[in-house]
User: Fold this.
Amino acid sequence: MADTKMAPAIVIHGGAGVILKERMTDEVEAAYRKMLAASVTAGYEVLKNGGSSTDAVIASIIVMEDSELFNAGKGAVFTHEETVELDASVMRGSDLQAGAVGGVKKIRNPVKLAADVMNLSPHVMLMGEGAEFFAKENGYELVDNSYFHTKRRLNQLRKLLGKDEVSALSETEHDDYEIDENKLGTVGAVAIDQEGTIAAATSTGGMTNKRFGRIGDSPIIGAGTYADNSSCGISGTGHGEFFMRAAVAHDICARVSYKGISLQQAADEVIQDKLAEMGGDGGVIGLDPEGNIIYSFNTPGMYRAAIDREGKLTVMLFKED
Amino acid sequence: MADTKMAPAIVIHGGAGVILKERMTDEVEAAYRKMLAASVTAGYEVLKNGGSSTDAVIASIIVMEDSELFNAGKGAVFTHEETVELDASVMRGSDLQAGAVGGVKKIRNPVKLAADVMNLSPHVMLMGEGAEFFAKENGYELVDNSYFHTKRRLNQLRKLLGKDEVSALSETEHDDYEIDENKLGTVGAVAIDQEGTIAAATSTGGMTNKRFGRIGDSPIIGAGTYADNSSCGISGTGHGEFFMRAAVAHDICARVSYKGISLQQAADEVIQDKLAEMGGDGGVIGLDPEGNIIYSFNTPGMYRAAIDREGKLTVMLFKED
Assistant:
């Protein structure tokens, strides 16, 4: 019998928005490129060693959650009340299993908890203190909300609210793009492992200045995240309300399944045509069952990186990169 | 120019499960039939008077939320902590606008709040205390959680937990079906108004004995509720985790759009084939842009009623009804 293992592949994003070379210092650009490469490599190592695509996307996203550069985990944006509230989701394409958490304040790596909801609970989605109680029951050490706080994000909130208690930033704490990142910062990963199983995951702090327990698309299966071995895996980043209303991630997979078009074409139809017509900004990354990697975004740029089935690493920030 | 107004139609459900004639007294059956007729008629009156399909589905669902017979609003099931936590969502098919609330404890009619999230906030989904704060800001009077409590539901929880503090029920408080209703009780409505706009809405108390801030499919746009004038409107009821993983409501609309099949066939493919293969119980109601009404469920029965474009009222409980 022939060896049926396939070469794995992985693609990640760190948010979409007005990401333009002319608005970025060389130092900041280098910092993003380095962190995106570290993130995608962490996931690829899992895949190369025979690990699952679920473990791979978690490994990649943890690198971005632990980095202050992205709106997820440490360095996430502040709510109206100057706290950080995090959402994440994971889906596995072999059996359509999924897990998600929303509005958690004390979980260092929400993507890991979303995976544990998938693997250890009969539920798909757990919210807030309930999700944290589940985490404690499963051995998680809760962190204080201040762990996530950064001066850069607090300044973004206070500027937005017209407050003047803004602190000076060090050189590495650039504060560009804050307006776009109000809505569009999110991280995600999609991978296919040697068994051919696709997994997708997304993690975010949501919108700067969010109120009322607002939940965006990142923890919603079908909106920000979807994975089905028969069509594709998708992770999205953008103005969450539009992604929910258009069921972006599921719609892309549905177009692949039912229209028989390529994943690139399906993603472009949803992101460039439908979402743009609705007025929604953002983008997606994706992988099809053959391991082909796609990007589609209607913003000036998207932080993104991939390692394809040939093992080739790509890191891109701008539209033309 | 010809009058382009179309005759309206509406369909509702009050949950799916092991609903069998031989397990129901005549009195209980009559009570359900009467309340289903009252609910669908309330929505139809709105439509007949030129009101919107959104207002119609809200009117129908409020009747069921206010009735103790259904697992929504008053009479909803208890959580593990002996409280009631409610979820609801609304979607309008003309512009894909949507609103949802999850985990609210003090809102008498969650479906109304979901519609206000759609109409009065820039967001799609608000959770828990945040949603209640938004309600207060918009003039809602909050009710005490005890408003929702019924002896019948408390008994269901305590029996499930093996506790013996179960109270005697009066004749009208039947306690059949508690096991199925742990998972499958939900109410919903889909309507098309004289302008041809489809709206769908769903409301629920979720699962008996739920913990950890568990959120099911009812407040998830694409899972329990979807409406798109170009394909269909859907409201689902069933084992929510499966509805979320299969993105049931959006998948049915996507099959209509991209496969060009009828709504009945699309719903049957998802409910009878896909969901059943995954092991998920439940059903949906739906309407297509021509006002054709469909039901599809893989359980022994579903509480359901409709008034079609000819004004004909139908009320059904069992598979053969």
Observations:
- The interface with chain B takes residues 91, 96-98, 102-103, 121-131, 133-134, 211-216, 220-223, 226, 240-241, 244-247, 250-251, 254-255, 258-259, 278 of chain A (CB under 8 Å).
